[in-house]
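Consider the following assembly input.
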Amino acid sequence: MKMWNLLLTCMRGLVRNPMRAALTVLGIVIGIAAVVAIMEIGEGSKQQIKDKFSNLGADVVNIFGASVSTSGVNSGMGGRASLYPEDAVAIMDECKDTVVCASPYVRASGQVIVGNTNWSPNSIKGGNEYYLDIEGWEVERGHSFGKKQVDEAARVCLIGRTIADKLYSGQDPIGQEIRIKDVAFTVIGVLAAKGADGMGNDQDDCLILPWTSIRMRLMGASGTATVNKGGAANSTSKVSSTDTFSTSAVSFYPGSDLAPYTNAPHPLRTRTVDSILVKIRSSESATPAMDEMTPVLRRQHKLEPGVLDDFEMRDRSQFIKMVTGTSETMSKLLIAVAMISLVVGGVGIMNIMMVSVTERTREIGLRMAVGARPRDIMQQFLLEAVLLCLTGGLIGIAVGRVASELVSKHNGWPVATSPMAMVLAVSVAAVIGIIFGWYPAYKASRLDPIDALHHE
Amino acid sequence: MIELRNITKVYHLGEIDLPVLKGITLSIKEGEFVSLTGASGSGKSTLMNILGCLDHPSGGEYLLDGKDVAGLNADERARLRNARIGFVFQNFNLLPRTTALENVMVPAYYHHPVKSTKEIRERALELIRLVGLEDRKHHTPAQLSGGQQQRVAIARSLINSPGILLADEPTGNLDSTTSVEVMHMFRELNRKQGITVIIVTHDPKTAAFTDRAINMSDGLIMEGVSDDLSATLRK
């Protein structure tokens, strides 16, 4: 039988009893509508959470120095000062497949002063010209610093929203002087507000400087400078204080004259950085990115095969996953419930198809008498069930869409149309049609034409 | 055209074997107009089912157009029925809520090789015209009288141009006037188109329209007896 004729035959079969077909389909409509609505709402909240957390940097991999033990005391993560700014350059040059950009990262803390007001910011962070991009900062006013300022350890800084409010109350901070730990810097930009992070800390209470400026101008200049987790690092790492930072355009370190150091102990300046932040192409590619970066860093650090890595990598996607996981679990649970209603709808289809087969026994007998093979009968009834379910599926998608739109309007929940949900709904409907239509169709095809013809 | 050789049919009802056909040998030539008569329980329905390839015999040979069809499987029998045999039933067996034209088209959908829908429709219209229902082609069975329904059924049986028409009590649900009309139609088809027509009936008046009556009794053929009967009735 030609597909088109078969389709027409089935549709006629269904249209012959429109009320019953409509009621049968209702179960599937409700089930599919529930699945679509829940998936759309779930997708919406997932995206909302993702948006909220994307400024935490889901696509960022942190590289720390490995832990180190001194006299049995383990420093913990980042204890070994093993990361050099050149590592960031190497990663950017050699891991182009997975890495977008990389920045050294250093942290300091201390007091900032403007005029007669002072403030102790949450953090003073330093990175290179890519740092803002990696951490997802936007510059609200003014501009960021570039490679030149990083190389020169320029005395420029970007300030967070909170700092701008606290220290400049109303005035335009751009171009103003700010003293960070008694070193005068110029404010070149104000960062757009990010709000609190996942733990409730104010992210806008910070200053961002070229990392070189922190290293060269703030640290070591005053003994009170503290490096994030760097207490151990400073004491345990072998610091060669006479090294000059190679990429630096100006020399911050005295030449070979060691006299001042021997005469008066000079605070140490480390060449290492606290960590390296790497922006990867997508939050899903954290593992391949780490796999690509590891050999580069091992080579950079001249590690012999067999020697343990002197660094550790951690991606933040785990954290994002944990947060989105909760809502995902919830919507999965709801989808499971909706699926149950689909199964119930499927049983309804099966029930009606059984009734239909019994009721149309004579029709089946006649079709067989005039030349329908068992498989033709099977096809017809199976297709009828699938058509019913598909119709239900399509109506269900429409109802589900309307329902989720209403919910989002009424409750203000975010909704994202999910093409996945629609494809899934239609295929689930078709599969239900096949599963629950199979047995009645099989029964129909096994009828004996003689008995069927004389069925009353 | 039709050759039955010692056809038997035994039904198994639990432990008991119930022989219904006890060795039928029969030959029907192409273009014959035959009736198959007999009291109920004589086995004529069973024989008709076997003749119509709806059922297979328990034993014996059935040659249709020279080919043995006794051993065909369900699919092959379906193909054979579709192409060679047209069925007309006592209770018409039209699809409800389906127009006369659509009803006529049904067997053609199962034809192998596949025919185009246009071709099927044209042929169906031709047949609807032949049975004189052109003005009622879009009526559903519920809107047609018994005689009209049976004429639709006859048109349906002809859609694949079969060589044999098998009618099971075609007049059983009709009044005497319509019965005569329907029987005349069968005779027309037999005379003008050369179709072999086999009418199964218990009604001597219906059987009288045919050229040859095959009388069955207790699973065996008693040919000749009813020839006399038909001869007397024809006068």
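The first helix of chain A runs from residue 3 to 15. Ask yourself how this observation constrains the way the partners meet.
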